[in-house]
Amino acid sequence: MKERILTHETIEAFQEYLLREERSKNTVEKYLRDIHIFAVFAGDREINKQTVTAYKEHLLKESYAVRSINSMLASLNCLFVFLGWEDCKVRVVKIQRQIYCPEEKELTKTEYARLCRAAMEKRNQRLNLILQTICGTGIRVSELRYITVEAAKRGEAVVSLKGKTRTVFLVKELRKKLLRYAAQQKILTGCIFVTRTGKPMNRTNIWREMKSLCCDAGVDPKKVFPHNLRHLFARTFYGLERDIVKLADILGHSNIETTRIYIVSTGAEHRRKLENMQLIL
């Protein structure tokens, strides 16, 4: 059997494959980042099951979060399928399903409202509206570019990402705010949330601006990042509807197990439910 070595050409071919498969830009970058980390670990060694197993053990010893390890291994397994090296694939680390999320990581409705107020007090109307748009629709931060003047007029945005297309509804009050803001900024068509140069706002821009609100809003910075707004939407929707299948469709999830992660309650809420059972006599 020909010796298996990861080369620059091999990784480039894998990148082209991912692009042909219409994987999102962020997914491609993430896969390649994971593979480069593994390539550094492997060095000039032949790639076989023993090498990959040793890498898995290395990640565990380095105290990576289990979810991070599994994500990195998933990237490698995808590469091995592409190369026909399926005997190199390794199993992910088993995780017991978490029934509640740590309170220190959950953004509450009250904290979200304080962030929006802080944005307005800083006269950052754009950020205030970005917060409300993500939290009011459940879209990913990378999907903000689909919030256009045309979408606001229609009352719905058509989002195409990860090879899937879905419709995101915009409630009446959000539509009014979006169109008012677009008119003020003289944005007549296309993406509403843009930089001074007219380019769509990206994840880094938004993350940095959100972090700048933490002190004034009195919110722990560890809770403040765009994806936590999506989680707040998911928990709020599920609390009203109790329909995880519909929620998965709204969020654009292919796997309902991903949606379950979004709706776990906090430890405090879990304790209240146990108290309400009144089984201690």
Detail the topology: elements first, then pairings:
Layout: H1 8-20, H2 25-42, H3 49-61, H4 66-83, E1 100-101, H5 109-121, H6 125-137, H7 149-154, E2 156-161, E3 164-169, H8 172-184, H9 203-211, H10 214-217, H11 226-241, H12 244-251, H13 256-262, E4 265-266, H14 267-277
What can you see in these coordinates?
It is a single chain. The protein has 281 residues and is mainly alpha-helical. The protein is 58% helix and 6% strand. It has 14 helices and four strands. It has helices spanning 8-20, 25-42, 49-61, 66-83, 109-121, 125-137, 149-154, 172-184, 203-211, 214-217, 226-241, 244-251, 256-262, 267-277; strands at 100-101, 156-161, 164-169, 265-266. The strands form two sheets. The protein has a two-stranded parallel sheet. A hairpin with a 2-residue loop joins β2 (156-161) and β3 (164-169). It is globular and about 60 Å long. It starts with 7 loop residues before the first helix and ends with a helix. The model has no long low-confidence stretch (mean pLDDT 90).
Please work out how many helical segments DSSP would assign: 14
Overall number of strands:
4
**How much strand content do the residues show?**
5-15%
Secondary structure: helix percent: 55-70%
Low-confidence stretches: none
Radius of gyration, in Å, reads 22 Å
